[in-house]
Amino acid sequence: xxxxxxxxQREMIKTCLMxxxxxxxxxxxxxxxxxxxxxxxxxxxxxxxxxxxxxxEIRKLSCGNGPDRFDADIHPHYHFVCRKCGQVQDxxxxxxxxxxxxxQQHCKGQxxxxxxYFYGVCDACMTESDEKS
Length: 133
Fold this sequence. Notes:
Blueprint: H1 8-18, H2 26-33, H3 42-54, E1 59-61, E2 69-71, E3 78-82, E4 88-91, H4 97-104, E5 117-120, H5 123-132
Parallel strand pairs: 3-5
Antiparallel strand pairs: 1-2, 3-4
């Protein structure tokens, strides 16, 4: 396997993502990183995010409601996605091996993990709706 050359830009992208817990989009990361690297391109951010995903150093979240989001926390965990504002939050709960075992009973292949998203309306959007009523 080819050795990956060090990149300050890639390191900055990863560091920026690790310091966040809001699951930003590539565009959001790009806007933040431009403050330190004004010449960085959006394409560079996308390429490096995808490379970091391929290397297993970060996770890409495709929640079905807009652009992909990115997460530096790669340990197994669940997410809550607000259907109104699109915010993605980590859920502080244990992942269920029982879910994997139950799914395995319906699959001829070998299941080794799962990703689960919970959808609804976040507290901030519910409060906003209540205030408008």
